[in-house]
Amino acid sequence: MANTLLIYGSLTGNTEGVAYNVQSMLREKGKEIDVKNAIDADIADLTGSYSNYIFACSTWDDGLPVSDFNDFLERISSSQPSLAGKKIAMIGLGDSNYVHFCGAISVMEQAFIAKMGGEKIIEPLRIDGYPEMEENKTHVQEWVEKLAPLIN
Ligand SMILES: Cc1cc2nc3c(=O)[nH]c(=O)nc-3n(C[C@H](O)[C@H](O)[C@H](O)COP(=O)(O)O)c2cc1C
Which of 5, 36, 49, 63 has the fewest beta carbons under 10 Å from its own? Predict the structure, then answer.
């Protein structure tokens, strides 16, 4: 059974693509990882047996998480789940031409680390522009290289 769950929110598919790339890169390194769209995610996904979580989310609307992910955060906020003892990694997609570049990362840090008590095990990955750009592909690869040994 997978030990890691990646939950992503994506409007035009950029974050979704990165989510599945990260899954296949981690699988190549022998890690079992499930991927779920935030539309389908709920409180039960955070209270199950996963040890590690990767949250991936694009930023829209002046620094806010993409709406599907925002809705997920609202669904779980009333239940105040604890992520104590869980390892957390975060991926943000955005565009540095906007004032609040990857603002969703701050919102996720507030929710999953500050409020729910998860352990941030790696600096969040921030992707500036299209993930298909060579430099962004390299950033993802380098980040996954660092992340893989940190999760069991
Ligand atoms: C109308 C609009 C607003 C955006 N606002 C932001 C923003 O505030 N901060 C940011 O970093 N990126 C912003 N972006 C860039 C998107 O986050 C970026 O295109 C991202 O790759 C989209 O990923 P997705 O397809 O997974 O939703 C915006 C893009 C558009 C078109």
Answer: 49
What is the distance in A from the centroid of ligand 1 to the CA of 26? 26
Q: Compute how many other C-beta atoms are within 10 angstroms of the C-beta atom of residue 19.
A: 24
Atom of ligand 1 nearest to the CA of 130: 21
Q: Taking 90 as the threshold, does the pLDDT of residue 152 lie above it?
A: no
Domains of the chain: 4-150 (3.40.50.360)
pLDDT in tens, 3-57: 999 999 999 999 999 999 999 999 999 999 999 999 999 999 999 899 999 999 9
Report how far ligand 1's centroid is from the alpha carbon of 58 (Å). 6
Residue with structure tokens 């996954």? Answer: 144
**How far apart are alpha carbons 119 and 83 in whole angstroms?**
8
**144 and 22 Cβ atoms separated by less than 8 Å:** yes
CA of 70 to the centre of ligand 1 (A): 14
